[in-house]
Amino acid sequence: MSISVATRPAASAVPGQAPTNAIEAKDLRVFYGDFMAVRDINLNVERRKITALIGPSGCGKSTVLRAFNRMNDLVPTARTEGEILFHGQNIYDRSVDAVEVRRRIGMVFQKPNPFPKSIYENIAWGARINGYKGNMDQLVEESLRGAALWDEVKDKLKQSGYSLSGGQQQRLCIARAIAVKPDIILMDEPCSALDPIATLRIEDLMRELTAQYTIIIVTHNMQQAARVADYTAFFMVDDTRTGYLVEYGPTNQLFTAPQDRRTEDYITGRFG
Fold first, then answer.
1. Are 177 and 108 in contact, with CB atoms under 8 Å apart?
2. For residue 56, what are the contacts with CB-CB under 8 A and spacing of at least 6?
3. How far is CA 117 from the centre of its chain?
4. Any idea what the CATH number is for the domain that residue 245 is in?
5. 118: DSSP letter
6. How far apart are alpha carbons 245 and 39 in whole angstroms?
7. 177 in a domain, yes or no?
8. 86: which residues sit within 8 A by CB, 6+ positions away?
9. DSSP assignments along 144-171, one per residue
10. pLDDT in tens, 131-161
């Protein structure tokens, strides 16, 4: 069974208003074999905002991100417990189609990974296999415009996606993600392989995309989190190497007046 957004709306704090949460993790735990990678994660991600996941290496940020669209299912030893609610429905329910989850909750990876196809086909292919029946030329243009790439590639759509610079390739991957009309875009350190100018282009693009999409980003760059994120979640790792959530709140508050001493220590460089 597919996710039904029409009949299973997410909870709203005020009757008649649009739901404020795009996705919710409840008591989330992820295992790789016998190893518990993250434990007891409770996180409500607001709609059409940017939420950053920060913390030291190995604290489970990427594991949590991949749990939001069931990418961990592709790891043979992975097992997930708890719930992730999307439009009020647990995406780990046996009746839910994981492929549909990944269409509705797209992913942009750390290293740009365009398909070995033309710029045009990088956009059209994903839409086509997802059953898009509309005007493909229009969709390709809209998606490339949405990723702030159209003006740079409109005269070379038949060229390989590999012909683009690293920053352009990453924006092509973002265009590919939005072509299938997701609700949420997950980004796993999308700027770590880019130069500072390309990084700023991606950050500006993320802000623009929040007019239509919810974005969750994993970043090791605290300055980036402070620049672009509306909300930030700080993760740590315990003595057993299991990641857990320490603090979550508005970015400005978390960076200027954290509620937990461990958050302050990490942000000020005392550890991590």
1. yes
2. 236, 237, 266, 271, 272
3. 24
4. 3.40.50.300
5. B
6. 8
7. yes
8. 3, 10, 22, 23, 101, 104, 105, 183, 184
9. HHHTT-HHHHTT-TTSBGGGS-HHHHHH
10. 888 999 999 999 999 999 999 999 999 999 9
Domain region containing 254: 21-267
Exposure string of 111-132, with b = 16+ CB inside 10 Å and e = fewer, is ebebbeebbbbbbbebbeeeee
Confirm if 54 and 247 have CB atoms less than 8 A apart.
Answer: no
Q: 9: how many CB neighbours lie within 10 A of its CB?
A: 13
In a domain, 272, yes or no: no
Residues in the chain where the model's pLDDT stays below 50: 1, 4-17
124 within some domain: yes
* CA-based R_g, the chain, Å: 19
Instruction: Indicate the number of domains in the chain.
Output: 1
